[in-house]
């Protein structure tokens, strides 16, 4: 009773998937030619399969009454009864052999086309998601993105194939079978007039129920995938705090929800399944009963009754298949709609329609009256404002250090420069060009970044260094490693530059990962250098080596250094002190030390701690 009450409270979705289907047909346009070939083969196979009931009829009537229909008698000219039997068997064998060959050819094309469809959509999905801003990925967990992308893509080919391939043969089968039914017996055909509408009504109701539950189940599956990815990605942290049981409990809680939803879904599926089965049972009970009565009293041939029953199956078969396709499409459409929702996400950072590649010759940077907040990129509504009317000019080839306590906007300054986010108001200019008016990819080609959390692929050391310049030679990779004071360490390894770094670089220390990142930045050879806490993971000895490498890298380039450890920035042309999203003071190290300001107090405190 509770399930019934809950069903009445369902907020049925008004969309029947027509928009999504139209879009799928556009997205899979390269596959249409081969799908048309599959369609042609399916139609031929369907038409051939409609001939086999006639063979059944002729064989039964011939074996029981030694009679052939006028159609077969016209073409089978032999008189010997064994010869006639051989002809009938031969025709049946020929039809089945041709049908089997066509089905295998269709199956081969079907399998290959399904793989091609997945490859096309995977590429499109990855391309569209990678075009999203950093803010998008900060809001969406990788596990959820992966689960939603995979589940949506896996459903696409089935739906496209159903629309372009399955529906036409099913409709053709249905029409031919209905015509045959009414030709043979209008009285018996009445059963179809009752069975078909009931079957359709129950199936549509069933599909709506399935779609409702599937949406809830799919959400929980994504959550489960997210927990698994989190647990695997942070397995070291899990082990450090002995929280294995906690992670398993998180998974169990989600699985309990999935099971509860599946139980509710299965109850409705079984209920509608019973109703559909009852329609079949009563329909065939009428056909067998009344058909048998006609055989006993009206002289209806058994072969004719078998033909009628077979074609009734051929009517209900396509109808049932069509309803199953409808069921699958409704369920699959949930995953596809969620995939499209990712594709259509309205990102805050997009290229302007008339954006052109940026041209940087000098590398001068200017922040002009910039306002910015992470929580709302369009309006300020009382949330924490990171920057308010921030203005700062960095001259070409100048080395500027940004210092200050955590959370005052130093890293945000870098993110705005690289256009990971856009200001709410104001402009960020490079060589006088507003970076919102140029393409993001061209902008980032001119910027080399060494961040605090170094990102590496689970590939070789050489691959990760070469990521800064895919066309680099082995000699160039080695030179970059030498400048970054990374070369001696690499060549001490058994596989040298072919050494795998492990997931998230787990086989390298923090300092080694940072030296790898510096080598990668050296190889990129960009006009603007950004270093965000690039020496934070190094001991004093290695820090000096890296600083020497840093100054070789930044020579003749516009450079921004973000650092908490002030010993890193003493050689900068200018030090800018941030506090609460504003510039508190700026100057050289010596100039700021002469003042009794925040920088001098901070430097003195660090000196006392380090002494």
UniProtKB/TrEMBL annotation:
UniProtKB keywords = ATP-binding, Membrane, Nucleotide-binding, Transmembrane, Transmembrane helix, Transport
Q: What topology does the record note for this protein and the membrane? A: Multi-pass membrane protein
A GO CC annotation recorded here is: plasma membrane
Q: What SUPFAM superfamilies does the entry give? A: ABC transporter transmembrane region, P-loop containing nucleoside triphosphate hydrolases
Which intervals hold domain ABC transporter? 372-605
Q: Which SMART domains match?
A: AAA
Domain called ABC transmembrane type-1: residue spans: 36-330
One Pfam family this sequence matches: ABC_tran
The keyword Cell membrane is annotated on this UniProt entry: no
Report the transmembrane regions from the record.
31-56, 76-95, 158-182, 188-207
User: What is its subcellular localisation?
Assistant: Cell membrane
GO molecular function terms listed in the Swiss-Prot or TrEMBL record: ABC-type oligopeptide transporter activity; ATP binding; ATP hydrolysis activity
Q: What is its main location?
A: membrane
**InterPro entries found in the cross-reference section:** AAA+_ATPase, ABC1_TM_dom, ABC1_TM_sf, ABC_transporter-like_ATP-bd, ABC_transporter-like_CS, P-loop_NTPase, Type_1_exporter
What name does the UniProt record give this protein?
Answer: ABC transporter ATP-binding protein
Organism phylogeny: Bacteria, Bacteria division Kazan-3B-28
């Amino acid at each position: 009773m509770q399930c019934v009450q809950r069903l009445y409270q369902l907020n049925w979705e008004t969309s029947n998937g027509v928009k999504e289907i139209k879009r799928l047909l556009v997205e899979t346009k390269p596959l249409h030619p081969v799908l048309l070939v599959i369609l042609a083969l399916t139609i031929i196979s369907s038409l051939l399969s409609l001939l086999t009931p006639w063979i059944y009829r002729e064989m039964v009537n011939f074996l029981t009454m030694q009679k052939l229909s006028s159609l077969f008698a016209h073409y089978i000219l032999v008189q010997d009864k064994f010869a006639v039997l051989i002809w009938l068997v031969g025709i049946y064998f020929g039809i089945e052999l041709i049908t089997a060959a066509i089905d295998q050819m269709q199956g081969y094309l079907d399998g290959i086309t399904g793989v091609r469809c997945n490859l096309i959509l995977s590429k499109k999905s990855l391309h569209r998601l990678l075009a999203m801003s950093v803010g998008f990925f900060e809001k969406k967990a990788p596990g959820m993105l992966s689960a939603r992308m995979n589940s949506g893509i896996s459903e696409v080919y089935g739906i496209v194939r159903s629309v372009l391939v399955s529906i036409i043969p099913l409709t053709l089968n249905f029409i031919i079978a209905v015509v045959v039914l009414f030709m043979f017996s209008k009285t018996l055909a009445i059963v179809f007039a009752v069975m078909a509408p009931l079957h359709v009504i129950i199936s549509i109701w069933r599909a709506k129920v399935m779609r409702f539950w599937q949406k809830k189940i799919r959400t929980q599956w994504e959550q489960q995938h997210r927990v698994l990815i989190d647990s695997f990605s942070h397995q070291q942290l899990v082990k450090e705090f002995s929280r294995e049981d906690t992670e398993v409990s998180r998974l169990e809680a989600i699985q309990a929800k999935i099971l509860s939803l599946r139980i509710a879904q299965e109850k409705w599926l079984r209920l509608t399944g019973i109703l559909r089965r009852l329609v079949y049972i009563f329909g065939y009970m009428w056909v067998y009963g009344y058909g048998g009565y006609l055989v006993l009293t009206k002289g209806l041939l058994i072969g004719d009754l078998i033909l009628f029953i077979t074609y009734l199956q051929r009517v209900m078969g396509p109808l049932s298949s069509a309803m199953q396709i409808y069921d699958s499409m409704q369920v699959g459409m949930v995953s596809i709609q969620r995939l499209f929702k990712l594709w259509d996400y309205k990102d805050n950072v997009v290229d302007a329609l008339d954006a052109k590649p940026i041209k940087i010759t000098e590398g001068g940077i200017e922040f002009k009256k910039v306002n910015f907040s992470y929580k709302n990129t369009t309006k300020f509504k009382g949330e924490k404002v990171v920057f308010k009317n921030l203005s700062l000019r960095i001259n070409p080839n100048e080395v500027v250090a940004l210092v200050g306590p955590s959370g005052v906007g130093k890293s945000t300054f870098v993110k705005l420069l690289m256009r990971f986010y856009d200001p709410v108001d104001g402009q960020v200019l490079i060589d006088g060009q507003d970076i919102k008016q140029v393409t993001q990819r061209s902008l980032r080609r001119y910027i080399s970044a060494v961040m605090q959390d170094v990102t590496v692929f689970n590939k070789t050391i050489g691959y990760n260094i070469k990521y800064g310049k895919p066309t680099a030679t082995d000699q160039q990779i080695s030179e970059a490693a030498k400048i970054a004071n990374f070369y001696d360490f690499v060549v001490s390894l058994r596989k040298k530059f072919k050494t795998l770094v492990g997931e998230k670089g787990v086989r390298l220390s923090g300092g080694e990962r940072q030296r790898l990142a510096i080598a990668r930045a050296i190889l990129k050879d960009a006009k603007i250098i950004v270093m965000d806490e690039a020496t934070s993971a190094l001991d004093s000895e290695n820090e000096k080596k890296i600083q020497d490498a840093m100054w070789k890298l930044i020579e003749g380039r516009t450079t921004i250094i973000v650092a908490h450890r002030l010993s890193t920035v003493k050689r900068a042309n200018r030090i800018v002190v941030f506090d609460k999203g504003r510039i508190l003071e700026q100057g050289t190290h010596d100039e700021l030390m002469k003042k009794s300001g925040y920088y001098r107090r901070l430097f003195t405190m660090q000196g006392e701690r380090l002494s």
